């Protein structure tokens, strides 16, 4: 097991505890050493095994400061957001408010008109096979399909943001509110939001660069302006629709286009959550019995292959898919500046795992954590 040593290696977790209980980090010096070698201040993880969950948190929320990370520390989930967003979008499909195979331009005008993009459907956007690039960073960049939709895989945050636009158009509700009412509140995820809520800041982990230094605060952060804008209307940041996000962005950076990559509530990457909370969502995905037939249907549809990436990786509706032994795993990595995360889940086996880290070298940490605690090696590590 390399640097992890014997303290954490086990084919399965033999003992388990309720969500929120933590393993004694003092008994795990190998993780502390691994974080130090990788220059990553902390990790927070959970492993689910047939209804039982064990969590572990090691390190500090910010380098040079004493506050330890816990199962209730708030991390930027980065692209793990996409799994939650996909669950919401597929809920609209199940309710027959959205058709996976109707071209999306019939719901909303395309960002840029091109003949190839007119064939893009929600199925293509959820499976990253629509042909759009990942993100635009200036207004001169156009969003047009680079290949025939459905013919191959190419990761696209822009595609997920367009699904956010569609969901708001269909429901008349801000996307962050949709996620709260459809996922966070039913599952008791009280410390999670797609919006940068002030109430989460006190427990938030700071992102760090590859040298282990805290990342500076973002220039022209639109969050304070958005908060003021919504408060003036007697609403919260979660009530902000895309036009509100764009208005806040234009206020803080009037010379820069208010493109999706800059907006503070984003179906592709803006989730703030804790291991305690995100584990509740994973438990829901792998539960043998769910509160309604619709939730089981949603999870089943997520796990259906849509497009092949390589010999080991396919993509379902909103999640990567990999076959390891007899199990089919859903998985997703998260890669925001200062935060590197990974999760996998196996609905048929009732197993799942998530690892959050707050450092740019965190992928080295989460790979070793997954291998040490489960003995599984995931093709997604090489893909990511």
- Write down the CATH class: Alpha Beta
Q: Count of helical segments? A: 11
- Give the integer mean of the pLDDT values: 90
Order of helices and strands: HEEEHHHHHHEHHEEEEEEHH
Here the CATH topology equals Beta-lactamase
The termini sit apart by 21 Å
Quaternary organization: single chain
Q: Please state how the strands of the largest beta sheet are arranged side by side.
A: 2-1-10-9-8-7-6-5
Please tally the β strands and state the result: 10
How would you sum up this structure in a few lines?
InterPro entries: Beta-lactam-related (IPR001466), Beta-lactam/transpept-like (IPR012338), Diverse_Enzym_Activities (IPR050789). By secondary structure, the protein is an alpha+beta fold. It has helices at residues 29-38, 81-94, 122-126, 157-171, 175-187, 223-231, 242-252, 275-286, 293-302, 362-374, 380-383, and strands spanning 42-49, 52-59, 75-76, 272-273, 307-308, 313-315, 320-324, 327-336, 339-346, 351-357.
């Amino acid at each position: 097991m390399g640097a992890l040593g014997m303290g954490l290696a086990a084919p399965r977790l033999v003992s388990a505890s309720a969500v929120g209980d933590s393993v004694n980090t003092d008994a795990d010096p190998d993780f502390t050493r691994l974080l130090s070698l990788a220059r990553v201040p902390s990790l927070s993880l959970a492993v689910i095994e047939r209804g039982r969950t064990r969590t572990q948190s090691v390190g500090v929320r910010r380098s040079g400061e004493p506050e330890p990370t816990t199962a209730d520390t708030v991390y930027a989930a980065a692209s793990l957001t996409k799994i939650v967003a996909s669950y919401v979008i597929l809920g609209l499909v199940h309710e027959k408010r959205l058709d996976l195979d109707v071209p999306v331009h019939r719901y909303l005008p395309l960002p840029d008109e091109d003949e190839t993009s007119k064939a893009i459907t929600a199925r293509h956007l959820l499976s990253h096979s629509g042909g759009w690039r990942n993100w635009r960073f200036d207004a001169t960049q156009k969003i047009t399909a680079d290949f025939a939709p459905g013919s191959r895989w190419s990761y696209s945050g822009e595609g997920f943001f367009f699904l956010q636009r569609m969901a708001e158009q269909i429901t008349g509700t801000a996307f962050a509110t949709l996620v709260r009412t459809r996922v966070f509140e039913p599952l008791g995820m009280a410390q999670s939001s797609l919006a940068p809520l002030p109430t989460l800041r006190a427990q938030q982990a700071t992102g760090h660069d590859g040298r282990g230094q805290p990342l500076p605060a973002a220039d022209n952060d639109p969050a304070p302006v958005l908060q003021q804008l919504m408060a003036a209307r007697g609403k919260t940041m979660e009530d902000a629709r895309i036009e509100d996000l764009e208005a806040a962005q234009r206020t803080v950076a009037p010379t820069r286009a208010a493109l999706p990559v800059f907006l503070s509530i984003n179906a592709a990457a803006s989730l703030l959550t804790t291991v305690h909370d995100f584990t509740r969502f994973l438990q829901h995905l792998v539960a043998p019995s769910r509160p309604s037939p619709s939730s089981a249907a949603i999870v089943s549809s997520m796990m259906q292959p849509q497009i092949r990436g390589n010999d080991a990786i396919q993509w379902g509706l909103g999640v990567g898919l990999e076959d390891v032994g007899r199990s089919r795993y859903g998985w997703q990595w998260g890669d925001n500046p200062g935060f590197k995360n990974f999760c996998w889940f196996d609905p048929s086996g009732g197993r799942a795992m998530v690892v959050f880290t707050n450092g740019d070298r965190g992928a080295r940490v989460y790979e070793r954590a997954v291998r040490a605690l489960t003995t599984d090696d995931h093709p997604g590590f090489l893909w990511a």
